Automatic annotation (TrEMBL):
InterPro entries: 6-hairpin_glycosidase_sf, GH-type_carb-bd, GH92_a_mannosidase_put, GH92_N, Glyco_hydro_92, PNGase. Residues 285-768 form the Glycosyl hydrolase family domain. One of its GO terms (biological process) is carbohydrate metabolic process. It comes from Lentithecium fluviatile CBS 122367. This is Glycoside hydrolase family 92 protein.
Length: 823
């Protein structure tokens, strides 16, 4: 609340109450949490609040269970309460699974199968139901589980086939000291209260993509039937005579199974309710949360509150449904939903430093390398209060841990993939108006990004940047750098150089408001370091008809040679090592070809380097048409819209329709890669709403929304911004902007800034079936560090890219196909 008041004072010279216009459309009904629950989307499809810490779902043992549950190839091993969404790497969280048994064979507790490898059961695929704040499933045994959550607490309702049958057995629920990745360390504990059945305890686990360990605590209570007995289990044996254990990991790959159990005297018709809260502070705190958040085990009430929370989060945005295929609405709102599942709000749950409503703590930034591009920028529009808290949290993480994180999960430092991309996150928030927000300590935020740029950490696999001596002396990160100041994986010299350069560009943007001219100049100059790796000739790589790529360079200046297609989707070798391994390449999870576009601060300079806008467009087309880029990984995002910088906004529109819905269908297997904590969801949302960010800059690239209109009410100012398509064509043949007005006046720029949202402007786009000259003149192009050159007298050759585009699309302008695009 304190933040909201502060923001209101800052953002308006007059005080008014923010009331979000309640729209008649219930956006909630378009949310399908199961999108991305198969085919490696790895989303968390269960019950959660926005940014909730409790995330309840059925956990399965499929190969791709990073988010807990999948709709493919898995058997249910339990019902966990902590999860992440859309991550790659090893499965994340899944802690403190419950598992219900209708009864034990022969009524003998030792004949229930406790270890999760033995107890797992198949489920009925058609029984799976997921909606905001809810998940339900029926196992093949006939056992039904429904679940909902509050902030730190899950509520499960287990009903058994013989429910209501007075002689129908004695249900048992166990609580397993486990997680999805079997990462539990030594000395987990559980204690079962024989009177109340309450179970409390804790265990230490490993983070799924980071260093160190963390401890999770829980507090579980049960209701619905009288307690028969309770106790603990170890491996396959249990006893009601023992109420407490401390258990080691043992020496095998999986930790020794262990936990608590509770058995009930009857099998009630309404099932048994299990309430479990988690904490990173103590079991007592978990119990306090449980009692405060779900005091009466009120399933419907908890579910309704979760639904309301989601309804409110989705309420600032409304779209016209006229003519639009409902599947696109599902795609859109489900993408939006996924942007608010992670990061998670762990305020009050941080044992390392005090956090509170005025000093929030967010965790599960997983990872910023993914989310800086469009997810966090999207939240700046839709949920700026949450984004403010995330920025405050990143800055206080810097204060207490010494560095901004690049990736962070469950209190641990995650692995850095490329640059110090928290710099982009801070700059993006700063220039989009949060810079005026005094509740954010921007001076400290600025010292944090400067530290990234100036001081090398001892372990730059976890924070900051490596190779800073070389960076400052040579203006690039050398391939096989000699670096004795700090240590990290000595690969990715090209992608790190490009990312560091853009990170410095963002620092310069912040310096304009927070430091002196000297810093602005210094970081602006360093942002040009990308030029030092441009090699204008072709090495002995595969000839794609293009010459001039970024290449690695040794410390002595000699060029290193990597085939520009390596680590692309069409890499001739499918076994190339392209991630964080020590034997990885000079680009991270991407090729030289694709990284060849990663100069977000100086597109004009890059276009000139490539020989002008036509050559640039040909390259971008080749990148997409030949499948060099992969829309399922985040470096591709901006390349979809970079045509804008060559004066060809029409081609960005075509390209976004090329990918959506072809590569993003609203089906379980519909995502092209891991959702990455909502990064893919935000790509869908922002592409479809027609404004895509160049993060770190006050720039949204304009394309026609996929709907006749989109309205977004700023939660900060209460004003509503609207984008409307005139001549809207739901078959998407007419996706070319012919002219535009902003608040009724002609608007020719192909981009717009964030005041569009905060000031509630109206952008009206008149569409046609041919590319037009709209947004094509140099003065219409988005800002760039260098001047645009090589654009002739301000006209571009619209034949380039477009003719072929018509053929490629088929449905688009097939009648006119082949006609000259020169207007
Ligand atoms: C799930 O269980 C069924 C039946 O026991 C079995 O056929 C199947 O292989 C199991 N699936 C996995 C992924 O273990
Ligand atoms: C009730 O449970 C008992 C014992 O499991 C079983 O024999 C009986 O058929 C059940 N009755 C009904 C109506 O389900
Ligand atoms: C675990 O507990 C045992 C027995 O109390 C103790 O000897 C050991 O030091 C503990 N290990 C850790 C890592 O705390
Ligand atoms: C406790 O366990 C023992 C041994 O399995 C069993 O005989 C007894 O009935 C159990 N107590 C209760 C209350 O069920
Ligand atoms: C949302 O509300 C606005 C203003 O009340 C209205 O103009 C618009 O048509 C509504 N959108 C939908 C999709 O109903
Ligand atoms: C995060 O949690 C804190 C403490 O409960 C709360 O004050 C804050 O409003 C939450 N933030 C968001 C964005 O929900
Ligand atoms: C520069 O260093 C590289 C890598 O050690 C080496 O292969 C190359 O021969 C050196 N070039 C010169 C001119 O010394
Ligand atoms: C690109 O990939 C898509 C999907 O895998 C495929 O349909 C298409 O034929 C590929 N295009 C080229 C040029 O290989
Ligand atoms: C598109 O442009 C071509 C060539 O200028 C022209 O023949 C055609 O009529 C145009 N189509 C529309 C719908 O304006
Ligand atoms: C701009 O350049 C184009 C192509 O070179 C030419 O056709 C046109 O006449 C020029 N326009 C002006 C105003 O110079
Ligand atoms: C425009 O590009 C096309 C295709 O590359 C080319 O054939 C044509 O000569 C170009 N026109 C101008 C005026 O440069």
């Amino acid at each position: 609340m304190a933040n909201r008041n502060l923001l209101l004072c800052v953002f308006s010279s007059f005080i008014f109450i923010v009331t979000l216009a309640q729209n008649t459309t219930d956006n909630l009904k378009y949310v399908d949490q199961l999108i991305g629950s198969a085919n490696g989307g790895n989303v968390f499809p269960g019950a959660t609040l926005p940014y909730g810490m409790a995330k309840a779902v059925a956990d399965v043992d499929s190969q791709s269970n990073q988010g807990g549950f999948t709709t493919e190839n898995g058997n249910v091993t339990g019902f966990g309460t902590m999860h992440d969404s859309g991550t790659g790497g090893s499965p994340s969280l899944g802690n403190f699974a419950l598992f219900p048994y209708a009864s034990c064979p022969g009524d003998d507790v030792n004949r229930c199968r406790f270890p999760k490898k033995e107890r797992k059961v198949t489920y009925k695929p058609e029984s799976v139901k997921a909606s905001p704040g809810y998940f339900g499933i029926e196992l093949s045994s006939g056992m039904k589980a429904d679940m909902t959550t509050a902030q730190h607490t899950s509520l499960f309702r287990f009903s058994f086939p013989s429910s209501g049958n007075s002689t129908g057995g004695s249900p048992l629920i166990l609580l397993d000291l486990t997680d999805l990745a079997d990462s539990r360390q030594d000395n987990a504990t559980i204690s079962v209260n024989s009177e109340t059945g309450r179970m409390t305890g804790s265990a230490r686990f490993l983070p799924s993509f980071g260093s160190g360990t963390w401890i999770g605590y829980f507090c579980a209570d049960f209701t619905g039937a009288a307690i028969r007995d309770n106790g603990v289990f170890v491996n396959s044996r249990a006893s009601n005579a023992t109420k407490e254990i401390k258990i080691t990991r043992s020496i095998n790959a999986s930790p020794l199974p262990g936990g608590g159990f509770i058995r009930f005297a009857s099998n009630p018709a309404d099932g048994i309710l299990a309430r479990i809260a988690v904490s990173l502070i103590s079991s007592e705190q978990a119990c306090t949360s449980a009692e405060a958040e779900i005091p009466d085990f009120d399933f419907e009430g908890t579910h309704a509150a979760a639904e309301d929370a989601w309804r409110e989060k989705l309420s600032p945005i409304s779209v016209s449904t006229t003519g639009v295929d409902p599947s696109l609405l599902t795609n859109f709102f489900s993408g939006i939903y996924r942007t608010m599942v992670n990061p998670q709000n762990y305020t009050g749950e941080n044992p390392k430093w005090e956090t509170s409503a005025s000093a929030p703590y967010f965790d599960s930034f997983y990872c910023l390398w993914d989310s800086f591009r469009s997810q966090l920028p999207f939240l700046t529009i839709l949920d700026p209060l949450a984004l403010t808290q995330m920025v405050q949290s990143l800055i206080s993480t810097y204060e207490h841990e010494g560095w901004l994180p690049d990736c962070r999960m469950t209190l641990c430092k995650g692995y850095t993939q490329g640059g110090s991309n928290a710099d982009v996150v801070l700059a993006d928030a700063y220039i989009k108006g949060l810079g005026a927000d005094r509740s954010i300590d921007w001076e400290t935020g600025y010292s944090a990004v400067v530290k990234d740029a100036e001081i090398e950490p001892f372990s730059w696999s976890n924070e900051g940047r490596g190779g800073l001596d070389s960076w400052k002396a040579l203006g690039y990160i050398p391939t096989q750098d000699f670096d004795y100041n700090g240590f990290g994986t000595m690969t990715r010299s090209v992608s790190r150089t490009l990312e560091y350069a853009y990170n410095d560009f963002c620092i310069a943007k912040m310096a304009e408001g927070l430091a002196d001219e000297g810093d602005v100049e210094k970081y602006t100059e360093r942002s040009g370091n990308w030029k030092n790796l441009f090699y204008g000739y072709l090495f002995n790589g595969q000839d794609t008809g293009f010459t001039g790529f970024f290449q690695g360079r040794f410390q002595n200046g000699t060029w290193h040679n990597q085939d520009p297609l390596w680590c692309s989707t069409i890499d001739p070798s499918s076994s190339r090592i392209c991630s964080l391994q020590n034997n990885g390449q000079e680009t991270f999870e991407s090729s030289l070809w694709e990284y060849g576009f990663y100069v977000p601060g100086d597109q004009a300079g890059l276009i000139a380097t490539y020989g002008g806008p036509d050559a640039f467009v040909k390259r971008l087309d080749y990148l997409h048409d030949q499948n060099i880029t992969y829309i399922g990984n985040e470096p591709s995002f901006l390349t979809v819209f970079q045509y804008h910088y060559a004066g060809r906004p029409a081609l960005s529109a075509v390209r976004s329709h090329f990918y959506i819905p072809r590569y993003f269908s609203p089906t379980n297997a519909g995502l092209p890669g891991n959702d990455d904590s909502g990064a893919m969801g935000s790509f869908v949302a922002m592409s479809m709403m027609g404004l895509f960010p160049n993060p770190g800059q006050n720039v949204y690239l304009i394309t026609p929304p996929f709907f006749e209109s989109v309205s977004i009410t700023s939660p900060l100012t209460g004003k509503t911004a609207t984008i409307r398509n005139v001549n809207f064509d739901p078959t998407y043949a007419g996706i070319y902007i012919q002219s535009a007005t902003l608040d009724g006046k002609p608007y020719t720029k192909n981009w717009i800034d964030h005041s569009f949202f905060t000031e509630g402007k109206e952008l009206v786009l008149t569409l046609g079936r041919n590319e037009s000259a709209w947004g094509a003149r140099v003065e219409d192009l988005p800002p760039s560090l260098s001047e645009y050159v090589g654009f002739g007298n301000g006209t571009v050759n619209r034949t380039v890219g477009f003719e072929r585009r018509w053929r490629l699309e088929g449905r688009v302008g097939s009648v006119e196909g082949g006609a000259s695009g020169l207007l």
